[in-house]
Specification:
44 residues; three-stranded antiparallel beta sheet; 3 strands; globular
Length: 44
């Protein structure tokens, strides 16, 4: 797996999901969920 293809996802009780690169930079924030985000499914 190439480093450039790795993205880490996190979820929170703050109703958001975030996607990060391996350098710790936030790539995207998904907001607007009605409740906690407790899991994610990543489809490639």
């Amino acid at each position: 797996m190439q480093k450039a293809n790795v993205v880490i996802s996190t979820a929170s009780f703050g109703n958001t999901a975030r996607f990060w690169d391996l350098e710790g930079r936030c790539l995207q924030v998904i907001e607007g969920h009605a409740g906690w985000v407790v899991s994610a499914i990543i489809v490639r």
